[in-house]
User: What shape does this take?
Amino acid sequence: MISAAIYVRISSDSTGEGLGVARQEADCRALAERLGWTVAEVYRDNDISAYSGRTRPDYERLLAAVDAGTVRGLIAWHPDRLHRSPKELERFIDLAERTGLQIQTCQSGAVDLSSPSGRMVARMLGATARYESEHKAARIRRKLAENAAAGKPHGGHRPYGWEVDRLTIRESEAAVLRDAARRVLAGEPLRSILRDLNARGLHNASGKPWTHPTFRNVLLHARHAGLREYNGQEMGQAAWPAIIPPETWRAVRRILTNPERVTTPGRAGRLHLLSGIARCGVCGSPLRVGHSRATEAYRCTASACVSRRRDRLEEYVEAVVIARLSRPDAAALLTPEDDGGERERAVQAAELVRQRLDDAAASFASGIITARQLATITGQLRPELATLEAAAAPPPDRAGVLGELVSAGDVAAAWEALSPDARRTVVRLLLEITVARGRRGPGFSTEGITLTWR
Ligand SMILES: [Zn+2]
Assistant: This one.
C-alpha cells in the first residue's frame, strides 16, 4: 500500500464549478481508492490572495513530508493546484525526482516527472493550465488593479497590437500588423517594411522606431493569430481574438523562419534582383551573386554547380517580366487561379493533425501511451503538419503587388520606377527560375535557364 497525501487548494481563480476544496478532496479520495492508495493526510491551503507568491504553509509541510519519505504518493485535483509558477514546478520536479514520488491527478491522470519527456509535458500542462483558467480576464483585471495600487507598471510592456489588458485589439496597430503580414506573404523583405513604417512615424509599442529583431519578434507572436503558445509550441485557441487569421500567421512564420531566406544585402548594400529567388538547376540550392574573375555572377550557394553573369541574367529576366506584364491579358495575372478548394481542404486537414497531436500529448500525460509512443506519433505528425500548413497558406496578394505595373501605360518605365525590393517581390511572385549548366564558352547563353510562370 502506498502511503499517500492529498493536496487541495483554493485559489483566487477557483470560483469555477467543482473547484471548491470539499469537491477537490472528495474527487481525490475517490481516486486514491481506485489506485489502492492509503490517504495518510490531507493538506489544505487557502490561496485566495496569493498573487504575491506568498508561502503556502501546508504545501511546505507536504514537501517536507515527501522529502522525509513519509509520503510516497501524492494526489491533487489538477496539476495547477500543486504549482503556481514554473519556478515552483522546477522545485517540485527536483524533489519528485530525488524521492521517486508518484503523482496522480483527478483531471489529467498520472504526472510522470521521472523522464525528460514527462517533465516536458508537465511544463507544457503547467503553462496551459495557467492560461486556460476561465477567469483569466477577471484575474488580469485584479492583477492590474493590484499593480496600479502598488505603483507597478502593468505587468510588463503592452504587446504591440493590443490594449493594456492584453485581450482587446488596438485597431490602429492591428491594421499595421495585417498589412505587414500581407507584405511578407507577397515576398517583401522585413527591413523594407519596417523602413516604410518608421518613415511614416508608425513606431513600436513604446513609441520608438522599429528595429529588425523587434519587428520580426512581433510578427512571430502567436497571440496575433488568437493562439496560445509555450516555448514556441502552439497550445491551442486563446481567450482573445485573432488579428491575423491563423493560416496567414503560420505562413508568415514559415517565411520568416525559413533558414534559406536571403536577407543579407550584397556588397552594393542591397539584395540583387534574383538572389535567393533563382535556384540551381543541378542541386536546387538558391543562387547568390559572387565574383568570378572580373565579372559578377549568380552562382549556386551549395557548390560551384552553375554560374551566370549577373547583368545578363537580370536583363533577361526583366525583359521577360516586362513583356508579360505588357500583354493585353496581363490583368489575368492579378487573380490567382482557382485551386478547386484545395487550400481549404489543407486548412481543415492541418487542424485535424493539430488535434491528433494534442490528443497524443493528453494520452501521454494520463499514462495511456509511453514516451516512446508519443515520440513516434509526433515524429510522424510533425512533418505531415508542416506540409499541410504550407498547402494551407493563403495566396499572396497579387493585385497589391502587380496592380500598378499592369495598369501602367508604359510597363518598362513603371518597372524602372520600382524600388529594388519591389522588383524582387514582383519576380518572386511571377516566376520560378532555375539555372542549369549552359553551353561552355564565352558570352551569355539562355540555354539551361528555365522560367516558369507561377
Ligand atoms: Zn547547385
Q: What stands out?
A: The longest helix spans residues 342-365. The chain has 16 helices and 13 strands. The pocket of zinc ion is lined by residues 280, 282-283, 285, 300, 302-303, 305 (CB under 6 Å).
